[in-house]
Specification:
Elements: H1 3-30, H2 40-43, E1 47-55, E2 64-74, E3 79-89, E4 92-105, E5 109-116, E6 123-130, E7 136-145, E8 150-160
Antiparallel strand pairs: 1-2, 1-8, 2-3, 3-4, 4-5, 5-6, 6-7, 7-8
Length: 171
Amino acid sequence: MDSTIVAAIIGGIFTIGASIGTFAITRIFDSNLLLVTRNVRQKSLTGQWKGPVHQEGGIQGTPIDIQLALTLRSTRRVVRGEGFFTGAFQNQTFNTTMTILGGFVHERFLKLEYEYKSELVQFGFVLLELSPDGRTLEGQWMGFGPISRKLVSGSMQLHKQGSFSHLPTHP
C-alpha cells in the first residue's frame, strides 16, 4: 500500500479519536462525575445544610417562616442540589421538594436558581454568602409564589450539618 494512503488513514483515525476524547473529557468536567473543585470554599458546600427561611409579607401580609433542608453537591463548575421545605400556613402543614442549580461568584457568594418539583409554578433565585469558616450560608431570595400569584422575597440562614462542616483556619 502507498505510504501516503497509510499516512492519510492514520491521520484520519487520530483525528476521530481526538474528537471523541475531547468530547468525553468535556462531558466529564461539566457533569457531576468529577468532584474536583477550584478551591476549598467551593468544596465545603458539598453536604447537608439546614435552617430557617423567612418570607416577608406572605398571604394577607402575614410573614411565613419555614424550615429548609438542602443537599448540595459542588463540582468543578456548578453547584447542584435538592431542597426540602417544611412549614405551616393557616393551620395546614406543607412539604415541598425543589431542585437547585448555580455556582460561586467571587469565591464567597453563591448564586442559585430553584424550581419546585410540583404542579405549582414556583421558582426563584437566591444569593447567599458563605461565612469565613464555611459553616453558614446567609442571604436573600426572591421568587414567584403560586398562592399569592406575585413575586415574593425573604431571607434565609443555613447551617452545615455533619462533622466536616468547617474550613481550615490559618494561624
